[in-house]
Fold:
Amino acid sequence: MMKDADATDWDAVVAAPGFALGIRTADDALTLIEFLPPQSPQPARTPLAAEAARQIDAYLRDARHRFDLPLAPGGSAHQNAVWAVMQQIAVGDTLTYGEVARRIGSAPRAVGAACGANPLPVVIPCHRIVGAGGALGGFAHATQGFLPGIKRWLLAHETATREFRLSANAPALSSRRPDARPS
Structure:
């Protein structure tokens, strides 16, 4: 979701590349994250908001960061089933709306609606659900503009992390084509 709310509405605001994230907490749980236009960070008002901001910053630096926060997303049984599947998708991987629907015995449009209703994007990674045939699909109930651009950024951020790994035991890289003959 994107909100044009004044910073005073948030327990913390985290600056990100081209956007910001507003954080709200209640009763010792994270209850809401919303995408905001680019802005400066806002210091946290509560210890939990500070921890959420720290973990979101860690994710923005390294997509492999694993969130460990108390969550209170609310939602219907169907929404919670979709959100549970989202949390099982590995960083850099995606599932289609149809694949999620088959896993929980639902329909792709209902899965899309649950994705759009996710109150904790990034922590509950709704951006990892995409359309069939490689289509981006919607994001926070939007199919154009600012929000789908954030989905593209999140997917690229995670894909870049997954594709580049160094290993001390891996074979050396070669610039030679695999079909080239040694000279």
Q: What stands out?
A: Confidence is low (pLDDT under 50) at residues 1-5, 169-180. The longest strand covers residues 19-26. Strands lie at 12-16, 19-26, 29-36, 95-96, 129-130.
